[in-house]
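Re: the pair you flagged

First of the two:
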Amino acid sequence: MTQAAVDTSTERTVQRRKTTEPGAGRTRPAVTLFVLTALLLVSATAGLAIGSVQVPPGQVWGIVTHALGADWQEPGWTRARETIVVDVRAPRVLLGAVIGAGLAVIGTALQALVRNPLAEPYLLGVSSGASLGAVSVIVFGVTLFGPLSLSAAAFVGALGALLLVYATARTGGRITSTRLVLSGVAISAVLTAVLDLLLLTTDQGNEARAVLAWTLGGLGGVTWGTLWLPSAALLLGIGVLMVQARNLNLLLAGEEAATTMGLDVARFRARLFVLLSLVTGVLVAAAGPIGFVGLMMPHIVRLFVGGDHRRVLPTAALGGAVFLIWADIAARTVAAPMEIPVGVLTALCGGPFFLWLMRRDARRGTDRGVA
């Protein structure tokens, strides 16, 4: 068989994998993107309007357009409401959209890279390293970078965990995805143990409470000045992944088929693992470890647009943004005036989804075995 015939056969295999997945081709991608974009606008409006002080949706957009310099209507709201919408809720809503979109696209890419439907953004121990860095700042009272000390320490911890994982997984000059995942699990367990030790040995209960609140994830405390970094990380991640969407599709057919099509699988995986881990570190530093968004969203959107990553990545980004905005709205309102960490609510949604996903895969495995 000639090389051209092999390439053609491999392309057909990839296309068959993408079109035979559940939901492949069920909904036109343009329709799905339009609906999700509309939902994102509605969700953002709700996030700006709902809270301890209710602001009518029409007034919300009046305040927003006025803040952007469009003075097409006379302000009919108080200065206090404008401050609440522009300075308190708007950065929080935007951070929720950024974090949700980022976690969703990272989870999508990781599931393709390791060919495991249960992969998620914290697979390589990045969240444990970030948590340890943040906890160290809280426990020891380090304020080297002022208000940014916690986020900076979280990112340094995430980067340190990534370096440890790669140093552990690298043997003989090569890194396989299996060794990388196992190293991530091991390093994560060690860092979590160190974190627990810090919590047990701290003398002040307030510090332990602050640590617990951060490790559960949340969007509170964000300002316009701290929003640019996670936004830039999201744009970088989505941009690179969209460029590499074809290579991610090749991995659907298996490593041998991808290699036949000219993809250096080992190098491609290593580079994307580094990029995704760094983006994850930035997101965790901004909002804490918010779980299950990156696990759920890729599977949900594949039910509507199939498995082609050129469609899945933007759809997952919009879906993740919508989901986390509403999770944050619930976190702020369900037990008001107390605020529930948003990571608790995502876990309550993601836990049952995780169990359903395992049962679904188990049934598929049984069906294939019978067949």
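Second of the two:
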Amino acid sequence: MALTIELGVAELAATRFAISPLSETVACLQQLAGRDRQAINLRWLRWARKELARKPLDLSWTRPLLVSRRVNWPEFLVPAPRNGVASIDDDLAALRRTTPRQLRASLHRVFGDDLGEAAALAARPAAGLRAIAAELREAHDRLIAPHWSRIRGVLDADIGHRARQLAAGGAAKLFTDLHPDLRWHEGVLMLGGPRWRADRVVDRGPGGLVLIPVVLGSCQVLIKKSTSTQTTVRYPARGAAAVWTARAQPPAAGVIRLLGRVRAELLETLRSPATTTDLAHALGVTPSAVSQHLRILRDSGLVARERSGRAVLYLTTALGEALLRPESGAWPHT
């Protein structure tokens, strides 16, 4: 199976990158719901669950659109940003500009004739969009804003890298580097499937594409097949795991005395899941030494491991976090 978009010279000239806080907000809610969850976001997920346990979000209008038996969701929730770096206010204003006709068409594309819980939105589109915008604004302020400076840094670095790829090898190199499942050739952009065989054609929005890197999202490329704004291509940002690797402070002296400096630093670093190779590079020790220290930390219940595809990721357990920060549950510091 392949998804194809006609993307000639004029459309390529209008194709651009954009950063969207609303895209990250929608992605983080999907991660919390278990949709396309990424292991690299486990540290954030643990923090977010604690935050929501303290005070749950009211997502009565938004949740039925994002979490249903369908794998798809209405495209108007992430409209194409008009500017390269949109604010959350810009994004939500664009969402509220969705016309009743566009909204109902989008709902029927996803849910068919049986709208279920989305029927109230179809009946009262203006009021529903205002309610959805308010819910997404609160979700952003509580779950994304505390980390936005770090997320934004990764997104900026990703776009800088893509610009260099475009300069070095043109559109073909840009899209191939964007994601292994993407190819561009002779005016056609393809996502997945046998090379150059069109199975499904995207009803592209006006102008070129808007390429949006995402940190808290799926490991897959997400393209809406029909949209009222410019067609967005949301893809996993390069270096997304780096968002969660920065340490708020060095391990406490008592933890270093108890575990030794290398094991204490491993425990602190593993607040963000990492492989033994990642840890060896980060701490400047050999992979074999890292493995020995990890074995001891695992036997002590301070570190756990999870498989993500072919990789084995290690992460600090709740017991390990309690040892590191017994006096504080307020991670992260911003």
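The CA atoms of residues 13 and 243 lie 31 Å apart.

-B.
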